């Protein structure tokens, strides 16, 4: 990570990701399928990965074989399907060979049971033993009943795995096989594949494989945004009243940081214009540290001059003190009790007016009439789309890991559900590059 203060001219040292090396071998993935009704969707995941040039090997739990016949995966992958620890006499330590033969491991669907085993180091079948034996990057796509997903034990296990470096592809919300409604449905196979491709692209061992660059022919984000230069604003702004007081808001900067991380992982050159926050910026991006709305506008405009897209995720303070004091104002003074405010610059509107054919995405943090207010903001600001989120909902919004989000574009509204910020970042990038 490289950081610059707002006083340093922007755009001077934006990093460029080097292209991947070419080589003769395709990237390889071990797909672990566990006993959930969503196991049938793993067939589609395997097929989509193959279309992206990935070699797929499948391991199944005994319970998964009751839902999908291993012959299905064998026909799709043209490879043997691993089920039991001792099924293959020619390979008496199958869990070790599986753990070493791939570049990335994907567990999809991941039941509450396998998640618990992984979190606590239990190895009592082929999949759990292989997962314990591997040092590879692991992606986990949970799928289960909403109450099982929300259970304190499951959430604690998820946090343990996330802390150890596993990537969690959060489940979608909707109608579940059991008839309940809520989170727990396996994420969309296309979204899972995008996350796998990003993981393959960020792993040095797989750089030997030729990979497609930029956007796919259908406009979707592929495993790389190489050639794209993206500016992202994040965090709050602080407008000084005096040396110890300021006007600000509750934004933590988490969403913007996740957007910067996701864009960098997909190969883009990223400039993150970051307001005051304790959230650590991701490695590899160019970071512009700012405090006020004026500083953020200046840095964002300079970086946007030669960028291809702008995502305004920052929560910019709407007002600033007209005349900030040079010393601390005492209680009871007229200047503090009758503070005169002025509007801060409208960063989203100003840069949308300058965008030309480039993409500009804004955010709307709302507490009521979320979608209606976002539609109105889209018209006022002149940007291409607004990501609306309900910050009044418990567990969503400022300083949270989740958002209740909607994509509000000129073509219509898409309900993105209650979604983890990291997953939302990839979804925003995918939709932005479909425009």
From TrEMBL:
It comes from Coriobacterium glomerans (strain ATCC 49209 / DSM 20642 / JCM 10262 / PW2). Its EC number is 4.1.1.36, 6.3.2.5. Residues 225-432 form the DNA/pantothenate metabolism flavoprotein C-terminal domain. The active site is at 178 (proton donor). Its cofactor is FMN; Mg(2+). One of its GO terms (cellular component) is phosphopantothenoylcysteine decarboxylase complex. GO terms for molecular function: FMN binding; metal ion binding; phosphopantothenate--cysteine ligase activity; phosphopantothenoylcysteine decarboxylase activity. Gene3D superfamilies: CoaB-like, Flavin prenyltransferase-like. Residues 230-435 are annotated as: Phosphopantothenate--cysteine ligase. CTP binds at residues 318, 328, 345-348, 363, 377, 381. NCBIfam families: coaBC_dfp. This is Coenzyme A biosynthesis bifunctional protein CoaBC. SUPFAM superfamilies: CoaB-like (SSF102645), Homo-oligomeric flavin-containing Cys decarboxylases, HFCD (SSF52507). One of its GO terms (biological process) is coenzyme A biosynthetic process. Binds 1 FMN per subunit. Residues 1-229 are annotated as: Phosphopantothenoylcysteine decarboxylase. Keywords: Decarboxylase, Flavoprotein, FMN, Ligase, Lyase, Magnesium, Metal-binding, Multifunctional enzyme. Catalyzes two sequential steps in the biosynthesis of coenzyme A. In the first step cysteine is conjugated to 4'-phosphopantothenate to form 4-phosphopantothenoylcysteine. In the second step the latter compound is decarboxylated to form 4'-phosphopantotheine. InterPro entries: CoaB-like_sf, CoaBC, DNA/pantothenate-metab_flavo_C, Flavin_trans-like, Flavoprotein.
């Amino acid at each position: 990570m490289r950081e610059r203060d707002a006083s340093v001219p922007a755009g001077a040292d934006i990093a460029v990701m080097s292209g991947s090396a070419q080589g003769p071998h395709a990237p390889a993935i071990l797909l672990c399928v566990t006993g959930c009704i969503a196991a049938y969707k793993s067939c589609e995941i395997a097929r989509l990965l193959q279309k992206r040039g990935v070699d797929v090997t499948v391991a199944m739990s005994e319970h998964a074989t009751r839902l999908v016949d291993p012959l299905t995966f064998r026909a799709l992958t043209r490879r043997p399907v691993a089920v039991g620890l001792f099924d293959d006499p020619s390979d008496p330590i199958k869990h070790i060979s599986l753990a070493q033969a791939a570049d990335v491991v994907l567990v999809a669907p991941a039941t509450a049971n396998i998640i618990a085993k992984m979190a606590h180091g239990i190895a009592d079948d082929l999949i759990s033993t292989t997962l314990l034996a591997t040092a590879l990057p692991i992606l986990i796509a949970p799928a289960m009943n909403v109450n099982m997903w929300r259970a304190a034990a499951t959430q604690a296990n998820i946090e343990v795995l996330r802390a150890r470096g596993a990537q969690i592809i959060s489940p979608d919300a909707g109608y579940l096989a059991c008839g309940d409604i809520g989170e727990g449905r396996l994420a969309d196979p296309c979204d899972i594949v995008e996350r796998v491709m990003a993981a393959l692209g960020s792993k040095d061992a797989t750089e030997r494989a030729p990979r497609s660059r930029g956007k796919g022919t259908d406009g979707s984000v592929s495993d790389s945004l190489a050639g794209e230069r993206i500016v992202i604003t994040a965090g709050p702004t602080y407008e000084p009243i005096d040396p110890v007081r300021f006007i600000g808001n509750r934004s933590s900067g988490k969403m913007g940081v996740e957007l910067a991380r996701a864009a960098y992982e997909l190969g883009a050159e990223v400039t993150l214009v970051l307001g005051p926050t304790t959230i650590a910026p991701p490695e590899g991006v160019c970071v512009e540290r700012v405090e006020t709305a004026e500083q953020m506008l200046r840095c964002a405009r300079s970086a946007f001059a030669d960028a291809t897209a702008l995502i305004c995720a920052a929560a910019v303070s709407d007002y600033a003190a007209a005349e900030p004091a040079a010393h601390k104002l005492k209680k009871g003074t007229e200047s503090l009790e009758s503070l005169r405010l002025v509007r801060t610059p409208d960063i989203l509107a100003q840069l949308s007016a300058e965008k030309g054919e480039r993409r500009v995405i804004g955010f709307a943090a709302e507490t009521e009439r979320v979608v209606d207010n976002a539609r109105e903001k889209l018209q006022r600001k002149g940007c291409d789309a607004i990501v609306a989120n309900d910050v009044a909902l418990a567990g969503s919004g400022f300083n949270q890991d989740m958002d209740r989000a909607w994509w509000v574009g000129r073509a219509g509204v898409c309900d993105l559900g209650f979604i983890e910020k990291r997953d939302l970042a990839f979804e925003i990038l995918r939709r932005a590059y479909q425009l």
